[in-house]
Amino acid sequence: MSAGRILLVDDDESIRKVIGYMLEEAGYDVETCASADAGLRAFSERRPDLVLSDIKMPKKDGIELLGDLKAIDASVPVIILTAFGTVETAVEAMKRGAIDYLTKPIARDELVLTIAKTLKLRRLEAENEDLRDTLNDRFRFSSIIGLSPAMTAVFETLKKVAATDATVLITGESGTGKELVAKALHFNSPRRAQRLVTVNCAAIPHELLESELFGHVRGAFTGAIRDKPGKFELASGGTLFLDEIGAMPVQLQAKLLRALQEREIERIGGERVVEVDVRVVAATNRLLPALIAEGAFREDLYYRLNVVPVRLPALRERTGDIPLLAKHFVARFARESRVTVSRGALDAMARYRWPGNVRELENFCERIVLMRSGNAIDEPAVERHLATLAGDAAPATATLREIERATVLDALRSCGWNQSRAARRLGVPRHILLYRMKKFDIRREP
Asked: How confident is the model at residue 338, as a pLDDT?
C-alpha cells in the first residue's frame, strides 16, 4: 500500500531522479515534472497528496507555481526545494502558503521525515474537519426529531437564541433529550469552534463539585498536589453545560451566581481572580420553583439561569412524534441493513406511555433491532418486547432504591452489559455506574 502520492517539480533531471528514487524507496508513489506548467497540469488531473517544487525554474518559478496550486486547492501541502543561497526566497514562499522548505543538497532522512510529518499533519487536519462536519450534522436543529406543536415551539426558540450568548435553562423529565438540545445550541452558535464542557451536578460528590467547577491551587486541601483548572476555565470561549443543576448544593449556588454575574472565578485556595468568557446552558428534571419553596435552591440563581427557558415535553405529550423517532432509531441501529417497521408496530409503540421518554424509546428500538429474526419488525414482535419492558419496570409502590436499581439494570441490559455505554445512557461517569452496581449488588447476567 502506498504511503502517499507525491508530485515532484524540478527542471534538473538529476535532482528528479535522485529524489524520486529516495521517495519510491520510502514507499511513495512519485510523479515528476520538468516545468511549472507541466506540474500544474499534473496536479489538476491527478491531485497528489503533496507537492515538492524547486524555486528556480525557467519561464515560471516555484513561487508562481505555488500561487497557482493554492488557487486550485488551498489545502494542498507544498514543500519548497531551495539552494543554500536562496533561503530568503524560501521564507517568502512560506509566507505565501508553502508548508516547509528543504535546502539542497537534500539528505534522505530529512526528506522522508519532513514529508511523513507533513502528510500526517494533513491527515489529522482532514480528520478534524470531518469530525467538525459530523458534529455539525449530528447536532443540527433538524436532527432533533419532532413535528408536534410542542416541539415546533422548542425549535423556534432554539433558532432564535443559538446565535446569542444568553443563558438557557432546559427543563423536562429525564430522557426527554436535554443534553442533545444543549449540544445543538453550542454547535449552532458562534462558539462552535471552542469547547463544550459538561458537568453533571448530580454525578459528582458535593464535596468535589466546587473543585470541578472552579478548580483549586496546590495545597488547597489534602490531595491537592498540583494546580487544577476548573470547568469554567476549560470552557472559556465556549459553552459550559450544567446538567442536573437542581442537585447542586445550596452552599455552592452563591459562588455559581457570582461567576455568572461577574464573569470571573477564583480557584479554591487561590487569591487570583480569573476572568472567564463562558456561555452557560443549564438543565434539570426537577421543579426549581418547588426547590426554592423548600429552601433548596436560590431564587436569585434561578432568575439568573432562567433567561431563556426551554421546556422539553414528555414523549406522552407528543405521541404523534413516536413513529418518526422509532423509524429514525431503527434505521440508526440497523446501519447497513434495511429493516422495515410495520404500521401496526409503530401504532403499538405510540400507544405505550414511555415513562423513560425518548431515551427509553431509543433503548427499546436498539433492543428490537438486535433481537429481530428478520429484516421486518411487525406488531406482534413489538408487543412481545413491550410486555417484557413493562415486566422489567419497577412497580408503582417501589422504593427509591428499587427504582434506581431497576434503572441501572435496564441500562446495562439494553447496552449488552457494556459498562461504558450504559454509563453514557445514564448520563453518569463510568466510576459512578460501577459504584451503583456494587451498591445494589448488580452482577452481569449469563
From this structure: 87
The pLDDT tens digits of the residues spanning 96-143 come to 888 888 888 888 999 999 999 999 888 877 766 655 555 455 556 666
Distance CA(228)–CA(226), nearest Å, equals 6
Please indicate, yes or no, whether residues 195 and 265 belong to a single structural domain of this protein.
Answer: yes
Asked if 333 and 365 touch (Cβ cutoff 8 Å), the reply is yes
pLDDT in tens, 399-410: 556 667 777 887
Residue 297 confidence (pLDDT): 96
- Name the residue among 319, 367, 313, 370 with its Cα closest to residue 346: 319
Domain count, the chain: 3
Q: What is the pLDDT of residues 246-289, one digit of tens each?
A: 999 999 999 999 999 999 999 999 989 999 999 999 999 999 99
> What pTM did the predictor assign?
0.61
Q: Is residue 446 part of a domain?
A: no
Cell output for 388: 417484557
Question: How far apart are the C-alpha atoms of 442 and 435, rounded to whole Å?
Answer: 10
Residues 160 and 297 grouped into a single domain: yes
Question: Is 275 a member of any domain?
Answer: yes
Residue pLDDT, tens place only, 1-20 = 567 899 999 999 999 999 99
